[in-house]
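Risk mitigation, structural track. In case the binding assays with zinc ion fail to produce interpretable data, a predicted complex structure has been prepared as a fallback.
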Amino acid sequence: MSSTSLTDRVEALLADAATADGGAPVLPIVAAGDPVLRRPADPFDGQLSDALLARLIEAMRVTMHAAPGVGLAAPQIGLPLRLAVIEDAANVPEEVRAARGRVPQPFRVVINPSYEDASGRHVAFYEGCLSVPGYQAVVARHERVRLRALDERGRAVDEEVAGWPARIVQHETDHLDGTLYLDRAEPRSLSSTQSPAAVERWAQLTPQLAAQELGFSLPESD
Ligand code: ZN
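Fallback model:
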């Protein structure tokens, strides 16, 4: 995509969703079935001015909060750009925090991110996606990853991320490669989240009971 057309598209996206008071708009989220979620996104190489990038990031932050979600990748708002925002207040009971590594992740921006395994270990939990509403499925993911990216000011990031924040990093980076969590999920774990009762059914600390009852395997702990 040329820099002009990306600028035009971002301007149009922000204008179409503009709020009366001029605050950052909540953007429509693209659902599975849209090809933009299936294409590798373009690296960010300065196609947007600093001011427009900042407005886009703020709109993505507001949209993620409104959803609500803990991560949002640019393809999910229809932009094929390697940019994602992440934030997780992790307002969960202590036992959930301990079992899932669900520690708070302050707001952060990742640009051109990539990750690699840093633990040799997989952990499997239910996760969902704002672009696949109404469902959740179990995904085995690296327990810890080495994240390389740029932040919103263009500074290089090279750090290890563990626990639930590592899961979010993998999920969002996968979006930028055209991969949905369903591609990595245990198909037999797929569960509705369309009612509180459906959510409650597999709300245990780990998906062990779901694996037994639905008939799928969990990774060996190694
Ligand atoms: Zn997602």
